[in-house]
Amino acid sequence: MTSRDPSSSAIPEGLSILALGTGDAFSATRYGACLSVEHRDGDRIHRLRPHPIRKILREGRDTSDLDVGSFDACVLTHLHADHASGLEGWAFFHRFALRRPATLLTHPAVARDLWAHLQPSMGVLLNAKRQPVAMREEDYFDVRTFVDAIDLGPFRIEARTAWHHIPTIALRIHAGGRCFGYSADTAFDPALFEWLAESDLLVHEANLGPAHTPYAELAKLPAEVRAKMRLVAYPDEFVPTDVEPLEQGRRYVV
Fold first, then answer.
1. pLDDT (tens digit, 9 = 90+) per residue, 182-205?
2. What is the pTM of this model?
3. Are 63 and 249 in contact (CB under 8 A)?
4. Number of folded domains that form the chain
5. 3-state SS of 96-107?
6. In terms of residue numbers, what domain contains 157?
7. Whether the Cβ atoms of residue 50 and residue 32 lie closer than 8 Å to each other
8. 235: cis peptide before it, omega within 30°?
């Protein structure tokens, strides 16, 4: 599956990650956690969708020539606003500017509440005669649900449920013989971490509360695991010491 915009930013050989946002829900200095997963053939998928996504793309160091149409799909881990607040704008842009549905990949438990989440603001549109027209989820989205794995172009996307307040999935994304792992929001779970640790690059959250992973748990891990790990969605005031944080706007080759 080719990129929608093959003339956009050059992608390095193999699998790579663009850190579009690295903040948590209350960050005053960074955009909410958002990653672009890219493959050398020009394929791109987004992980999550915070608002304002077009501004986020425009301001990134390696993303200024990217736009919504540059991506083949969005992978949604869960529906908390710091991760999914941009879904409305993402879908409206596809409908009115790109004139095609937005491809959305997620777990059935997340998809179950998607339209209830969006229907109050997207369920009615005015036609040319200013008459209200009822809209459906499929008028905006091509939702493809999966429990264990799904293929999209060169990507093999695997999911595993995470421990969080609402249905949430962690991800492993394979392409070009490499694997990228993402914890999503989750309480620390040794079994989930063992699954993620098989990745060549692992991005893990480090935040506060019973449904997040304390940094102290990650700092205890073996040095060889910490070396291939990067942190995301940690509080602004926290400065990690033993695990490198993701740098917003930077591209990482897996």
1. 999 999 999 999 999 999 999 999
2. 0.89
3. yes
4. 1
5. HHHCCCEEEEEC
6. 15-253
7. yes
8. no
